[in-house]
Amino acid sequence: MTDQAVKRLTPDELRTLFLFESLTEEQLQWLSEAGYVEPVHDGTVFNEGDEATCCYVLLSGEIRLCKLSHGELVEINRTGQRGVYSGAFNAFFGANDHKSYTATMQVTQPSEFFVISAETMATMMNTWFPMAVHLIEGFVMGMRRTNETLGERERLLALGSLSAGLTHELNNPAAAAVRAAATLRQRVSGMRSKLAMLADGTLDATKLHQIVALQDDAVERLDKNKDKDIPPMELSDREDALTDWLDDHDVQASWDVAPVLAQAGLDVPWMEEVLTAVGPKYLEGAVRWLMYTIDTESLMNEIDDSVTRISTLVGAAKQYSQIDRAPYQTVDLRELLKSTLVMMSGKLQGYEVVKDFDPELPPIPAYAAELNQVWTNIIDNAVSAMGGSGTLTIRTRRDGAYAVVEIGDTGPGIPEEIRRRIFEPFFTTKPIGEGTGLGLDISWRIVVKKHHGDLRVESEPGRTVFKIVLPLEPERELESDPALLA
């Protein structure tokens, strides 16, 4: 467009726009020469994420502003009010500040704009309103620093709470392993003593081999029964039968021996085999030896379970914190969710947790530690909302080119007037001192800004669901839509 073809507004025409109505004649004249009128008949004026080069002031027509969500443009505003503006209106911020259009602007009918370049806007604001620029920059930078500081504090508080819960969870299996090891030492000592008593007798090699075979059979029965949940009445009847049999055969302290044998799945017919193998004279020693064998195996199983639990907790903590891993990597969302649930198991006591994970959901490239923070924030809010009891439901599924994670609770729901604000910084419904109101704001920025996904909520009394939508192939999505680079 040649300079002769450029259409400009006169100072009097500029004064009719509320944005410029208080400027002096000299300022209006300067602005009249610096800006120009641009008609746009249809289509997009600028895209979200593009470099913000101009500020557009509507003279006539109608515009719609849109934000990208879940791969689609969502309209956030539509107006035909003369004088409304959008674009590089914050171009006067510091030169190091990244400037891009924060939304996509389209026209719905032939429209006309007064256009000011970003450089012109910066010069105008810094020359005419230097104090206002300093105040606005101070306010914006102050809010940014406050967000960063309180955001770090929120993360540290959450980490401290999770660490306390993890310590408690680690202490239980560790204490159980220590107790089992101490008891195991006693049982092994008793077993050696009974073995010596048997060896000093007149048992021939055949009988010893039979006892060892019975010992192996007892261990095998114990392994088969360790995961079975035997009804209490059935177990009690089995103990009574064994106690009577042991008393009939003069085995001392039958009340101490019978529960161990019964728990291992041994019964009276099996004890008859022991009697046949060793005879009445050595029955007492053989029974004690077998009891120590069973007790020893049970204690070793307990130690194994405890150590496995500790290993699982440590593995979950590493998965949660992503220690020794690259910040950006291909991850399995199901594993991230499982590690978060393990880390939060202390807070989840008393709640029913339902996991519905799609086994076909493929791994995605993501910032794993930050997604774990998203799950933590949302689950923590769900637990707080349910107030002591309820059902937490976590689902994963695939929706076309996106992975979807849904975290739902059975709390009272989020009222409509609150729902519109829950992603705002510092907004919280918790009592003073119990929350900064940054958890969901941080979660929104991680999902939407950093992963180019979407975070939304659906709520009604008895059902609240947060839906996290993440692209399966973010690089391809960025290539196909540069607006996502914002």
Automatic annotation (TrEMBL):
Q: Which GO terms describe its molecular function?
A: protein histidine kinase activity
Where is the chain membrane-spanning?
A: none
What Enzyme Commission number(s) does the record list for this chain?
2.7.13.3
Q: What's the catalysed reaction? A: ATP + protein L-histidine = ADP + protein N-phospho-L-histidine
Sequence ranges assigned to domain Cyclic nucleotide-binding in this UniProt record: 19-125
Please, which domain of life does this record's source organism belong to? Bacteria
> Which GO BP terms, alphabetically?
phosphorelay signal transduction system
Gene3D superfamilies assigned: 1.10.287.130, Histidine kinase-like ATPase, C-terminal domain, Jelly Rolls
Q: Which SUPFAM superfamilies match?
A: ATPase domain of HSP90 chaperone/DNA topoisomerase II/histidine kinase, cAMP-binding domain-like
**Which ranges carry the Histidine kinase domain?**
297-474
Q: Which PROSITE patterns match?
A: CNMP_BINDING_3, HIS_KIN
Keywords, sorted A to Z: Kinase, Transferase, Two-component regulatory system
Q: What is this protein called?
A: histidine kinase
Organism source for this protein? Kribbella jejuensis
